[in-house]
Amino acid sequence: MTTEDTTTPRVNRRRFAGSVAAMGVVAAGAAALAPDGVRIVRETKADAAAPEAEHDHGGTTTSAAQTSNDMTADEMDAMHEEGVKAFPQATEGKGGMPLEYTEEDGVKVFNLTADAFQWEFQAGKYADAFGYNGVVPGPEIRVTEGDTIRVHLTNNLPESTAIHWHGVMVPNNMDGVPFITQPPIKPGETFTYEFPIREGNAGTHMYHSHNNSTEQVGKGLLGAFIIEPKDPSTRPEFDVEYTMILNDGPIGGYSINGKCFPATEPITVKLGQKLMMRFINEGQMIHPMHLHGMPMKVVAEDGYILDVPRMRDTILVDPGSRYEAIVEATELGAWAFHCHVLSHAESRHGMFGMVTVLFVEE
């Protein structure tokens, strides 16, 4: 089992634009995301007569009727094409990279800071973010069953915080819930978490704030926590892997690993390789992730191996859930990979939000 980096683009934009010219995603009018990124509004009779709102991918809305009347088919096509040709769009900052550690008397020691900063989610577009070590998502913590770990968290935020180790079996006083298992970590303070990684707890998990969590997690105070098995034969084999953290809220609305299309990063694999997809939903909405061209074999949910794997082309990733799925790269080409709540992915202005592309190369 290897863990190659699958994210380095090896397809230039000219080749990509040609290879995806026939790529089809059903267009849908997108309702603008509420300011807090999570509110769902039910239509009333009075609202029914009001024009539909259209997301302009920049945080403002226009009347759908006005947009439809003002845009020709050619103009709409040009906007779609422009977005696709911009992919992958360069931005500053990349989250989710492995967090380095030191060892002290057999204990793996990690250091985290909770910070407030500006985060570029599309070229030239920034959001007020909270994040670990200055990135969204926070660094990936990767450990092995049987390890003992120590995590020092220094709070540089203007408000209190704490870390909950979601899916990780920890002692009660390490669970990270203020006033239930620990005091809040006030601005300027450092708190130390320490716990063993239990056997039987391997798989894809996550860590995030559990204080003012709607805002703090929505702004990016989250990360992946991967537990490797002590015995690799107890988990499915794969060649390469990719962790996809989904969020909905202030970071551009709908994001994959802290970026919004066309600034999301491509996933690149070789023909015949087995790709392990690790899905993590840190948001407050359901996101059915759909891969074009090839099925996904779901092998684990919330870190636990399924007795019987399930074949899917769309995996319904609900809030707080994690899924592990293997894609056998049998089909060459550029394949769209997106949330199938289409208002999270595409409008008459083109694709945005939770969209990326899986490249299968020779």
Supply database-style keywords:
41% strand, mainly beta, seven-stranded mixed β-sheet, 5 helices, 362 residues, Immunoglobulin-like, five-stranded mixed β-sheet
Radius of gyration, in angstroms, nearest whole number: 21 Å
The CATH class label of the domain at 4-23 and 235-361 is: Mainly Beta
Question: Number of helix segments?
Answer: 5
Proportion of helical residues = 10-25%
Instruction: Name the CATH superfamily assignment of the domain at 4-23 and 235-361.
Output: Cupredoxins -  blue copper proteins
Largest sheet: 7 strands, mixed
* Secondary-structure-derived class: mainly beta
Tell how many strands the DSSP assignment holds.
Answer: 25
List low-confidence stretches.
7-15, 19-67
Fold-level CATH name of the domain at 4-23 and 235-361: Immunoglobulin-like
CATH architecture of the domain at 4-23 and 235-361: Sandwich
Please tell me the overall pLDDT. 87
Strand content: 35-45%
Overall 3D form: globular
Calculate the terminal CA-CA distance, rounded to whole Å. Answer: 21 Å
